[in-house]
Amino acid sequence: GGLPDGIVDTDMLAANAVATAKIADDAVTNAKENLSGTAKVWVNFNGTGTPAIRDDFNVSTIGDEGTGDYFINFTNALSNNNYCVTISGFNTGSGDGGWNTTWSSSGSWGANGDISTTKVNIACYSSGGSNQDNQAIGVAIFSS
User: What is the pTM of this model?
Assistant: First the structure.
């Protein structure tokens, strides 16, 4: 039985390679977080009532600080505060096909000016300029 010395059986080699190759926990997630040009944080949530996350990446929690005013906590801190925040959203049932909101960050990144490596505040306004909760809010954050 067996092979002569010096000959490698491909089945044995494959079995040993699979048995010994290990991917560290969170290696795939860490690679996504460190890939240049991708969103480091993104979230889709319902902003009416208590904010409810529908889907996300690198978001631990969302808090409600009043009508149309939210904070987003990051699961893993960003490398610096020099990131780009994009916001979109809508309410259903409006007369213009559902898209009835003008988006902006309030003041200096939110109602109370919080921007850090672990959290950002955002505010959503109606086209009339008053704070407004929305049924669907999307936020993406890009950073180096």
Answer: 0.66
Total number of residues shown for the chain: 144
pLDDT tens figures, 117-139: 999 988 887 767 778 888 888 89
| Residue pLDDT, tens place only, 74-130 | 999 999 988 888 887 776 654 444 444 444 433 223 334 578 899 998 888 776 777
SS3 per-residue string spanning the chain: CCCCCCCCCHHHHHHHHHHHCCCCCCHHHHHHHHCCCCEEEEEEEECCCCCEEEEEECEEEEEECCCCEEEEEECCCCCCCCCEEEEEEECCCCCCCCCCEEEECCECCECCCCECCCEEEEEEEECCCCECCCCEEEEEEECC
- Which tokens is 29 given? 């997630």
Residues 6+ apart with CB under 8 A from 57: 32, 39, 41, 42, 43
